[in-house]
Amino acid sequence: MNAIAVEIAAIPEPVITAHCRGLLEAIGSFFDDPDNQAKFEAWHKKKYGCLPKETSYGRPSEAKGA
Hints:
Blueprint: H1 13-32, H2 34-48
C-alpha cells in the first residue's frame, strides 16, 4: 500500500472549515446513541483506567452553560 501525502497548508480555509463542521456533526451523531457512548466509555476505562472527563464538546445548544 502506498502512503498518501496531504499538504494541509494547500487546502483553502473554507474547505477545511466545511470538512471540520461535517466531521464534528458526524461525531456528535455517533455519540447521540447511548450504546455508542457506553462502548466508548468502556473502551476508555479499559485503556486508561478511568472514565473520560466531562466536556462541553456537545453541539452548541448542548454545551454546559449555554
